[in-house]
Structures are given as C-alpha cells and as structure tokens.
Amino acid sequence: MPGTTHSGVFDSPQAVRDHFAALRAKGSKLVTTNGCFDIIHAGHVRYLAEAKAVGDILVVGINADSSVKKLKGPDRPLQNEADRAFIVASLKMVDATFVFAENDPCEFVEIIRPDFHVKGGDYSKEMIETPVVEKHGGKVIIVSLHKGYSTTSIVRKMRPE
User: Fold this and answer.
1) Residues 6+ apart with CB under 8 A from 125
2) Cis peptide upstream of residue 105 (ω within 30 degrees of 0)
3) Strand order of the sheet with strand 57-63?
4) Structure confidence by residue, pLDDT tens digits, 2-43
5) Which of 30, 43, 65, 106 counts the most CB atoms within 10 A of its CB?
6) By CB neighbour count within 10 A (0-12 exposed, 13-18 middle, 19+ buried), where does 103 fall?
7) What architecture is domain 4-153?
8) pTM given for the model
9) Where are the domains of the chain?
C-alpha cells in the first residue's frame, strides 16, 4: 500500500489524507488525536476507544522521538517512534498512525482536516490546534480523563529510587 510502511502505519499525514479520501467522500467521519504513547497502558486504551467512538476513522499522530525528549525529558522516549507507531496502529480501534516531528499538531491537522480532533480530559478546548481544526469545519472534543494512568508514573515505579 503506497504511503504506508506497515498496515496502518503511514509515512506522512498526506498519505493518511489520501488513503481515506474516498471513505470521507462517502460520509465517513475522520477523527484525529496525537500523543507520545511511550508505554501503552489502560488509560491510553480507554482514551483511544472514546476517540474512535466519536467518528468512523481514527488516525493517531505519534510524536517523533525528538519532540518526546523536549516534552518528557532526556530519558524519554523509552521506545523509538517506529515501534510506538506500530504498537498504536495494532490496537483494534486505531485505523492509522504516522509520526510527526513538529512541536505541535497544527501542521498535520491542516493537512488531514479532521471532522473531529480529540484530546484527553487533561486538556481544554483552548489548544493551539483548535483554530486550525475549526477553520476547516471540524470540532475539538475533550474526552474523559482516566486518573491514575500515566506513563511517567509507570516509569517512576520501574526505576530504583
């Protein structure tokens, strides 16, 4: 399949947009979200299931290794971007993933133009990408926050004090 390196893992947001264009033309609603997804845990799975329930196609932007380091610190990510994209793409509710190197999702949102952009309950609708989503008629949706689940807390438990 052109534009994809593994079933569901695409090499660019343009490839994602083009791949799903026919389905969207028939009325399928495309949902985007993004994140580091360094260690997949139950909070991620619940979050992605809620995101999928918003529409028909769920596309997940995976932060590149360089941006994870900026966001989470020099010891992260624990898994490389290709592995994280593969793992997330392998979840049954996810239709596609791709890695993005930018510091925020605005560029890929501009390219894909989702019907819905979903973030977890630790965010508000006043995000940097909100104007880009809304400019193209999309809507930002904030789903539940699943407290007690975070990769950072899992990493802390795994490392000796």
Assistant:
1) 140, 142
2) no
3) 4-6, 9-10, 96-100, 57-63, 30-35, 116-119, 139-142
4) 565 567 999 999 999 999 999 999 999 999 999 999 989 999
5) 30
6) middle
7) 3-Layer(aba) Sandwich (3.40)
8) 0.89
9) 4-153
